[in-house]
Design a protein that fits this description.
The protein has 205 residues and is of the alpha+beta class. It is built from 8 helices and 4 strands. The chain has a 4-stranded mixed sheet with strand order 2-1-3-4, with helices on one face. Helix 1 packs parallel to helix 3, helix 1 packs across helix 8 and helix 4 runs antiparallel to helix 5. The longest helix has 28 residues. The relative contact order is 0.17. Bound molecules: glutathione. The site of glutathione has 11 residues, from helix 3.
């Protein structure tokens, strides 16, 4: 049986939403950072860097670490959420912006504002500006497109949804300054698989 080792953060949520959207069976194993479970032998045997989420299936020797990898694996394994013909490069572009520009900026903002012993003013300003710049560009794109790839809902929307809901909870004004993103969020939030996937990983907020 596949098991998703997950956490109640955007990365965990992406993974469980992707599995739900793709109709892939899995059991949920919540990992508690406060108890140091991410450093347990069980987790380190699957991912030596001790980070989550991880999808594992001992029966087929499957181990996939990371929200982008799990989302893409789910899409390829099921044939769901794939970009329509001709939209492959757009999918890579937006997936890259979400996962290598926006998501790390949110993570850095979280570390500097919540976990750092003292708030780091310069760092917080820097990441706030990056986040606003990227969200502004995404908002402009979604003003002309129902989903990231036009009419087609895809794995790119799954990657973005937890960033647009969980992570923007830490922004002043939340997602409200971005009206097209708000409309897109409401469309995605109405999907039953998204509701199930968000519940499966849980939320810190
Ligand atoms: N690139 C990874 C990042 C994973 C990540 O940062 N996971 C965090 C939780 S959201 C984690 O496990 N942190 C524990 C640690 O770094 O010790 C992804 O997209 O999933």
């Amino acid at each position: 049986m596949r098991t998703l080792y997950t956490v109640p953060t955007a990365n965990g949520q992406r993974a469980s939403v992707a599995l739900e959207e793709c109709g892939i069976d899995y059991a949920v194993r919540q990992i508690d950072f406060a108890k140091g479970e991410h450093r347990s032998d069980e987790v380190l045997a699957l991912n030596p860097i001790g980070r989550l989420p991880i999808l594992s299936d001992p029966d087929s020797d499957l181990v996939v670490y990371g929200s982008l990898a799990i989302t893409r694996w789910a899409a390829m394994a099921s044939g769901e959420l794939l970009p329509p013909p001709g939209k492959e490069a757009d999918a890579e572009l937006w997936a890259g912006i979400i996962m290598t520009d926006l998501s790390p900026a949110f993570a850095s903002q979280f570390h500097l504002s919540v976990l750092a012993p003292e708030p780091h003013a310069w760092g917080l300003d820097y990441y706030a500006e990056v986040i606003q710049r990227v969200l502004g560009v995404i908002d402009g794109h979604l003003a002309d497109n129902e989903y990231f790839l036009g009419d087609a809902y895809s794995f790119v929307d799954v990657l973005m949804y937890p960033s647009a809901t969980s992570s923007t909870g830490r922004l002043e004004g939340g997602l409200e300054p971005y009206p097209a993103l708000c409309r897109w969020r409401d469309r995605v939030a109405a999907r039953p698989a998204v509701v199930r996937g968000m519940e499966a990983s849980g939320s810190l907020y």
